[in-house]
């Protein structure tokens, strides 16, 4: 079994992840969605950006990298939210 050669550009990840976070936040503002569905939307955006923009000539590579883009956006948002909540709790205790 040969593994596919996946060529990705550093800038794809730098631009894709913030765009995914921004799009999911806009969808949360304009549509009423259950909280459990938002990570799924982020994953779908990651797959879409990767398959149709970043890796349009390599479907398997696009799917593979799309998972990374989607989950990186989910993790980045969760980390930022946790840090802000911890900072606010620390400030309110003083």
Mind sketching the topology for me?
Elements: H1 10-30, H2 38-54, H3 59-93
Describe this structure as you would to a colleague.
By secondary structure, the protein is mostly helical. It is built from 3 helices and no strands. It has helices at 10-30, 38-54, 59-93. Helix 1 (10-30) packs across helix 3 and helix 2 crosses helix 3. It is elongated, with a radius of gyration of 16 Å. The model has no long low-confidence stretch (mean pLDDT 90).
Low-pLDDT ranges: none
Strand content: under 5%
Ends apart, CA distance between termini: 59 Å
Give helix and strand order, one letter per element, not per position.
Answer: HHH
Main pleated-sheet profile? none
Count of alpha and pi helical runs = 3
Radius of gyration: 16 Å
Q: How confident overall, as mean pLDDT? A: 90
The coarse silhouette is elongated
Helix content: over 70%
Structural class: mainly alpha
Extended strand count? 0
